[in-house]
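hi! just following up on the protien thing from before. the input was this:
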Amino acid sequence: MTRQARGPRVHERWAHLRFSVIGQILAAPPPKGELRAEIEALAGRQWRHPITGDPVCFGFSTIERWYYRALKERSDPVGVLRRKLRTDAGQQPAMSEAMRQAVFAQYAAHKNWSVQLHHDNLASLAEANADLRPVPCYDTRRRFMKANALNKRRRITSAGRKAPSVPKRGSPSARSRGSD
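and the predicted 3d structure came back as:
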């Protein structure tokens, strides 16, 4: 699958393809009773995929849905054929506001904990505090922490401490010890 580097965005390309499929019947509406036959003819054709250029077919119900959506829209029929974003995109309704605040507070105190350790501790905290219920699953908590950049951090060691140095296997000091 090859991607085109230049040109309009992917969603724009799809909207233009959808409009090109139904544009014929929007520009010249068929006589009464022949719309079904026109849409069936369009469903039988192959179209070029807007990203890969491969042949692609669309079903009758899909083309019919595009047609009626574009027909209702007076000002921007191509815009109505773009991908619609979900209204809850970027939100996690499975986590209550109290649980979110508890995650932030626990992370602030323990940045070096893993997500699993945070999950286990928040689950036990929720047993004692009814405001934190229901407890979301591990995956929901992991996605929430990742989305909010609550990543596990390494522990900070003191700058003065150094690990004891051990000579490497092939170094001259290691060979002199073994040749006694």
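The mean pLDDT is 85.
The radius of gyration is 30 Å.
cheers
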